[in-house]
Amino acid sequence: MTDRPLTNRQWPAKLVAAIVPGIMFSFGCMAVVGLLCHTTGETRTASSQFLMWLAVLVWLGVMGSCFLFRSGLRAWIVLGGAATFVWALFEILAKVMTA
């Protein structure tokens, strides 16, 4: 494997990857944590406020680190895979916890 330097030549693809699957990943993290904590949809509770800020912090972390990927395609694959994994985990946990 050759060591290639990090470049920002594909920054639009990396940024869009952070926006589209990145927000799906952060919402998925919020859904999984909310499901595990048995949070209701009431917006005035502390747990709901925590989950809303958690989604923002995760998304900002994704937005800040999206430029560390070697290419835009790799950013799309990794972030899309992470979003798919988190939402699949949410579906599995939702079925297990309601059964």
Describe the protein.
With 99 residues, this protein is an all-alpha fold. It has one domain. The protein is 74% helix and 0% strand. The chain has three helices and no strands. It has helices at 11-36, 46-65, 72-98. The longest helix is centred in the C-terminal third of the chain and has 27 residues, at 72-98. The chain is elongated and about 50 Å long. The mean pLDDT is 91. The chain crosses the membrane at residues 15-38, 50-70, 76-94. This is Iron uptake protein. Keywords: Membrane, Transmembrane, Transmembrane helix.
Notable features of this structure?
3 helices; 99 residues; single chain; mainly alpha
The domain count comes to 1
- Residue share in helices? over 70%
Distance between the termini: 47 Å
Principal-axes shape call: elongated
How large is the share of residues in beta strands?
A: under 5%
Uncertain parts: none
Organism: Acetobacter lovaniensis
Keywords: Membrane, Transmembrane, Transmembrane helix
Protein name: Iron uptake protein
Transmembrane segments: 15-38, 50-70, 76-94
Helix and strand layout, with pairings?
Layout: H1 11-36, H2 46-65, H3 72-98
Helix pairs in contact: 1-2, 1-3
Keywords: Membrane, Transmembrane, Transmembrane helix
Transmembrane segments: 15-38, 50-70, 76-94
Protein name: Iron uptake protein
What is this entry, summarized?
By secondary structure, the protein is an all-alpha fold. Helix content is 74%, strand content 0%. It comes from Acetobacter lovaniensis.
